[in-house]
Amino acid sequence: MYIKKHRSNSCRTFKLFECSDFIKYTVDKIKNNSWSPDACAGEAIATGRFNCSQMVCTKTLYNYIDLGFMDIKNTDLPMKLRRNTKLARVKKHKKKLGTSISQRPIDIDNRTEFGHWEIDTVIGEKTKDDNVLLTIVERKTRYAMVLKAIAKTAPAITDALNKVRDIFGEQFSQVFKSITSDNDSEFADLSTI
Asked: Which residue ranges does the record assign to the Integrase catalytic domain (predicted)?
């Protein structure tokens, strides 16, 4: 009995019935004068028509309208339906790291000439600083080279490709006529090789 009595007093009750005069005043101003709930609350305070204990705040007025406690719908509010409450996302500009794959020459697409390679990374662990595998595949012969890079970063990939350059020496430019990659950040320095 004692717990039930205190439990009934422990939660906040709606002030809808305590502030019924203010609610009626607000409904009248919105319907007849096309006021906003904020204008009704501001005018009631400015003129001293209601004191703070006889009113609810603007947010509560909007909540009561949304819940259907007042004889007003959102269509009755002058600006509620016109305002966009969703936050606009700023689109990030994506870096273009070279020409598009759709613009590469036809002989590369047809796989008729040796020396055109595709490059990508294979990640074993989820962290960026762990070792990755660098795969380089020749398009015509499907010959594949797999190298270990120390991280999935542009300097680490550049170091691995420089090792390949050292292995092939002067023949590097004859063997590697073009290298195609995706736009991942680890291939940002690919054009410097």
From this structure: 101-193
Distances, alpha carbon 108 to alpha carbons 42, 103, 118, 168, in Å = 71, 10, 11, 21
| CATH superfamily of the domain spanning 103-192 | Ribonuclease H-like superfamily/Ribonuclease H (3.30.420.10)
- Above 80 in pLDDT, residue 42? yes
Q: Mean pLDDT over all residues of the chain?
A: 82
Q: Which amino acid belongs to residue 26?
A: T
Please spell the DSSP secondary structure of 18-60, one letter per residue.
TTHHHHHHHHHHHHHH---HHHHHHHHHHHTSS-GGG---HHH
Q: What is the pLDDT of residues 118-152, one digit of tens each?
A: 999 988 767 666 788 999 999 989 999 999 888 88
Contacts of the segment 94-102: beta carbons below 8 A, 24+ positions apart: 94/183, 95/183, 95/185, 95/188, 96/183, 97/181, 97/183, 97/187, 97/188, 97/190, 97/191, 98/181, 98/190, 98/191, 101/180
